[in-house]
Records
---
Amino acid sequence: MGTNSASASKANPAGGRHAAAPTGGQTWLGRFLSLFTLPEDPASNSLRPLLLVSFVALYMEVVLIRWISTQVGVFAFFQNLALIACFLGFGLGCYRASQKKRSLFDLYALALLIAIIDLPYVPLQRLLAGLSNNLALSPDAALWGFTFSKLGLTNTVLLSSLSLIAVAGFLILVVATMIPLGQWVGFYLDNARNPVTAYSANLLGSLAGIWLFAAAAFLWIPPLYWFAFAFLLFLLVRPKSARVTATVAVFIIASLAFLRLSDSGKLLTIWSPYQKLQAQSAGDLGYNVRVNNVGYMTIANLSPAVAAKHPELATYYESSSYDAPFRFVKGCSRVLIVGAGAGNDAAAALRHCSGQIDAVEIDPAIYHLGKHLHPQHPYLSPRVHVILTDARAFMRNAQGKYDVILFGLLDSHTVLSDFSNMRIDNYVYTEESFDEARRLLAPNGVLILKFEVRAPWTWMGQRFYETLTRVFGTPPITFYARQYGALLPGTVFLESNGPGLWQRATAPKLAALIRDNPPPFSMQSSNLPSPATDNWPYVYHRSHTIPRTYFSVSIILLVLSIFLARTSFEARRRSTWLFFFLGAGFMLLETQLVSRLALFFGSTWLVNCIALSAILLVLVAANVYVERFRPRRLGVYFIILLLSLMANYLFPWESLHFSAHAVGILLSAAYAVSLFQAGVIFTETFRGSEGRSAAFAANIVGAVAGGLMQNLSFILGIRDLLLLAAGFYVLAFVAAKSPSRVEALAPVQDSTTIA
């Protein structure tokens, strides 16, 4: 990339020896560009390019995960599916480290992925939106935005087959995009003079990639610019032998055009740190808001002028899901709204209450829409205090009592993190969460839960009914509020610490409201779904099983993994299994930590970034420890690791009588012990490995297996992932103790460069 006169002559033979000498400016530019050149000489210093490629790899990983999860329905609910595909591609690339490397990542695979997903063809977009449902064939998990229909056996099989092919195709393109990045990382690891220092460079580059994308999320930058930066890196970060051809330019321009086209039109589009939001005017009734291309919420206009123009609103709004619950409340000087959205609930509270209103909303972009677009401007009222944080985290730390606690229409369309299949509102609907809300209620205070319970997922209403009955000791008052204009429908559940609620419910008008609007589910069923808990927070799953959609996509990925890695994965070598088990165990440990920390710090994007950054820094600290102390025996570290895992599994963290943040810090410190031991074991074993790229690849493929094993938490619960992680580390210890790998537990005398 940074060329001298000789290389310039080769690139431009017409100039020959008579070409002008480079000017000082050209020399400075050449030196600058040379910083991005990927050397192909094994004898060159590999730390700078390794740091750079690791940065690009992590950046591309989070870009692909975030983008595809908004554009393709199935990935929105199974976000770690894209993560596992990225891992698989990266691992396959590490296996191919010795092969010819032509570019930073597979531009053509990425361009094809963008073209297919953003192609403005209505039947294709409908197929993408319904992929999750088409793969399920059963309503055992609630996937919002999709409904079941009776298509007949032939059409159902055809549609499911097309969906299987589509998901497999998307996964293959994601894998292909990441393979070259894995090749470069594996190549530089193989040729590093010091493998521990090289691994630290890999971790620090990954850390930089995380925070660059976090900055883009914080600034609400859309995907057009994510990929534009990726393409800029593609043009800058390349080997000297690579040339930018007309074909490359055409593919880049076409990809950016498709991305620009997908966000064009009359809709106001915002890419928040969590999701893609699109607001469309509904005339004088307000606005409709879509999330990830699916209908999500409304901004309702109940101003006097609109009420005069639409008399039916004036007649029916008091029976809406926003106003009807407050008719059961007597006096509300302090109100808490969790999942405040764009302000419809806050506007209703202002109409019926005279006191302070705390409105908790996790997504700043939704608050932005409500603040600027809501016709009644509830968020500008001095009585409304907006808190931008996770609802569960707020309730854990809240002080004082509330006369009304209202759970808004929180139905989530996105997940907690890239390392988990949990949605960001899962912890809000657990039995423990409702118990915390009960603690915050004033005597005779009222808890209002609203949820859009609809077929075929009516069992969700039964779950909420049973959970509230267990928490409060009495069945909730339950009725259905129909839709009126922009006032969305929902099933309303009312509970209270005192008898006043039930006494007021006997008033003729309220009794008629309850009687004439029964919920869309039976409240007498003997086969009620079990409540969601903090250990099993899957409120959108009917039972402790792996939903068919999850099972289908996992099978697709498993088959692809076996097929693509069949010739590279050296199953006969025990060292392969050693690194495989270490990767699987660490993936489960990482998932468990991120999920548990969300309970104490919240499910916000910033908490996830900090958690992942802390994990990487603990691994860097483990590398420093290995470099300085050269641990002679790893057996003791395995023992400490297993003991710490069991201690974290058995210790009742939730019962500690400290603030949520204090418990979270203690939990983080306890998990750091496990992470550090795992880091020491991997780094010292990696330092003594003969083929570093193959070892790294086996570790990544193990992480793929660990990601698929996460689905067992749907059966066992989140905490039991620690037992699975411990099991993998036991297997790793056995593999390390085998005769062919006994050197893994013995001291490594030095590190030499592998040619």
---
Amino acid sequence: MSVIDFLATVNGFNAVTRDDLERIADQIEPRSYSDGDLLIRRGDAGDNMHVIKSGRVRVPLIDGATGSTKMVVHLGPGDLVGEMALLTGERRNADVIAEGDVESMVIERETLQPLLRDHPPLARFLTEILGRRLEEGGGIEWVGKYRLLGKLGEGATAKVYQGLHPGLNRVVAIKMLSHALVYDSSFKDRFLQEARTIAGLTHPNIVQIFDTEASYATYFIVMEKVSGTDLAKLLKVRKVLAAEEAMDILRQMCAALAYAHGKGIVHRDVKPANCAVDKDGTVKLMDFGIARRIQKNAAQKRAKMVEGTPRYLAPEAAVGKPVDGRADIYSLGIMAYEMVTGRVPFYSDTIRELLQMHVRKRPPDITKIRSGLPEGLVRFVNGTLVKRPDERLTDFDEIAKLLAGPGEPPELVSAAPADGGASEELLRIRYTQEAAPRVQKAMERFMGDVAGVSGVEVGHARIVPVTAGAKPNAGETQELGASGSGSWFARLAASGGTAPSTQPRNKASTRAISTLSGKPVE
């Protein structure tokens, strides 16, 4: 089999045109090895890689702490070796040893680099190998001065790891640009733009950036690790939130946006998935990947494509107009609507129709979906969902007044439907601290199941013993002793609400979409 025909069978290279394969073949150096020979020596410069043509090799991976072999990888025909050091510029981190007779084809860096730029499938294949090795711990345990502790999650463009700065004993989140996108300049530039944007923002309601690293042929953002979850996951379990809980989240998000807008930054992707909620109830705005500087007197030329998440996109963004902080506030209004009703105001099976709804259709009256909401919250939702940016509620001082919470937790009062047909059940659970994790998981499942029943409203409170004269914290219920008067249920900061609609959800991912043209609703 010729070199060209063989390369055409190798993963990654099979995406390269035959003309380019012929040019590669002219620059490949064939080499032969006997049993026990080193194809690659640990510690040498990584200036080339091997494609195994025949025979097998073994790769012992050494534990950096103990110097002992932690695992041995065996590779054969069609496999690549040495590509990690070639891509990263690092020295070799393992020996590659022939097991019997071996034939390989050696490709130098100067031959490969132009191919990676011109053939994205090959670049994706090689860099995804490197990404998997990073994930599996194949000899890669550190990113700069940070030690990797494990993967936290991943999205379409990035993966997030938990890391540790040993000197500071600081646990961090390390966001890594997906290796499949390293050679896509638009994604790379956006990733680095996020780091530059957030690095200048220091606010208790914005996830903090600590550092950036360029390593292992990709880029990393080292940021604050939030001990909690994001609002999208919280809503998936809880379905709806109590009005006061939603208002507290909105107040914190408004504080973050007011600060960012004051620094000249528009987020452009405000949504529950980009709202981190820690165990103490602190809310932090995150993922500034498509954030931009607010342009004063921006040209009115419409963009051909617009980035964002369709369910939360402002009308002016949907038609490709330049956006400012008012677009973020519209998205926050959509988020508020979803938190207290369990549904977004606009839904369609097609992205185009959904964007048209943002531009032209009035949102359903929130008070008809969930009655009894505070007047300030209703006015906030109605004001922020106005189609025209100039007429939209955008004054943060006014917003703060609308979202101001009561000085005391609300009294436990039941508002039954007009027909008087409502019934209530109260469930009390006592448990030890050891049982708390299992109880919490069971409660989440229970609340999710019950909230899914039509016509059901769910409330949740934690009961804590308090001393005489003490006031319960928000979200807790005072438990009176045996000598106390009245019910042990004294006050309640409810967390719950009306059952959600069975309406299916649009994909909530951030994406680039074609813009629309159309007039807003009058």
---
Amino acid sequence: MASKRFRTISTAAAVAVAVIFAIFFFTRHSELFSQTHVSAAPPAAQSAQSNGAQNSAIQNGASQNGASQNNSAQSGIPAAPAAQPLPPGTIAFEAKAVTSAQFLARQHLTESQYMTVAEYVEAIGKANNGKTTFKKGETALIPGIEPQPVVEKTRPYAKETEIRAIYLTGTSAGSAKGLQLVRHWHEAGGNAVVFDIKDSDGTINVPFSHPLARKIKNFPISNLPKYVRYLHSLDLHVIARQALFRDDNIAKNHGTLAVQSRSLHQPWRENGKLVWSDTSNKEVQDYNIALAKYVATSGVDEIQFDYVRFPAEGNQADAQFAFQKDPKSKMQRDEVIANFLDRAYTELHPMGVLLSLDVFGVMAWQRNVDLRHTGQDVVKMAKHCDVMSPMIYPSHFFGMDGYAHPGDAPEHFISISMERFAKVTAGTGVVLRPWLQAFRWRTKTYSPEYILAQVGASKQHSGDGFLLWNAANDYSKPFAAMPIIMKNPKQYLYTPPTAVAQNAPAQNSKPVEAAAGGVHHP
């Protein structure tokens, strides 16, 4: 009986040992099989898994890494090496379809440190070992991403500083060609650039949210502080031009804010063109001041107001403005302009930017007919700005001083204009920095020598630097003239006093031409 009990116990023990051994064997075999299966996965699958993990790591890498480590610890499998962190400023993109580096460059250019698509494509290629096309499921590294918004500060600049500038449209300024033109101008001796923030058609070239702003999808200058920073890196004085009251967008899309026709009771037209907002309308004025203040926060050094006036042509008797609706008011157009500038200057100057004004060249003659129409009283305007830029294009002085072809007499009209402006603005403290003609319209003598004649005449008659205007941004003649200008500073360049104030906050008070190709209206 004891022997039989002993055999039974022995058999049970043997069965138990066998069961334990079987469990241990199959568990180890399963782990071994699992590890072998992973290591034998096809390289493409491993790459896809790695790419997916890398892309996901940008969004929630910390939680995934932690979960992976916990799972490895529980299963007894050694933890896989942590994914390598991406270089600073680099993000990963998992392609959902075949994707080119050019597409990625265009998508991320605004938030990147790069200025052109071409240079960004090259950078993306370098970051991906020369690869610029990515198949579905592949990961592309996108370098150069910057924290947004970019912060750029206005640079203190003496208003008397001698400026040598060219003008760029907004579309040109934001293009690769425009950037190349800027670099060329800098290399030639230029030290400033004027570019459009808002032109006379009312289009704003930078992102700016306002009920009166025209709605567009793609802005020529998509990141204004970044663009200004680039110009500053070339040691250029940055001037943002803003066309004020000639505004096609407002005239056509916000009719109640346009100049009104007394006879037709609808928006007034200048020679058949619906282009003028009401200069005296406070809502229009507020809109323009808001835009200027926004631009000032983006690091520009100077705000330049153009079209600071009332319409000068068309049926003036039929044009009605907001300031005329009060029959008891005796206010005149020049007072409207002066009051607006007083308000704008008061709000802008504490922000550290200079304020400059474009005015008609003929305003130096102080003719009553010009003053009544435009409202540009140069003496009053000079009290509310730092710089005045008379547009003294020789070709625009029709019938003046007995010249049949004024465009071919640059020395005379530049000299007489600057003499008159200096006399009219004496004692105001305003700096005179003229716009000069850099286009061929109505002159047979346009050439590098034509540029030299204007610059020299301006310098000899109180001109403090110069701005060159060409609506098509063709500056081949000025570029040819610049070597001579820079080699002969006594003849062409203005030397300001050594001790001058910078464009820091200041006190508010300080001690008609035809439209055609290349024409520039104030």
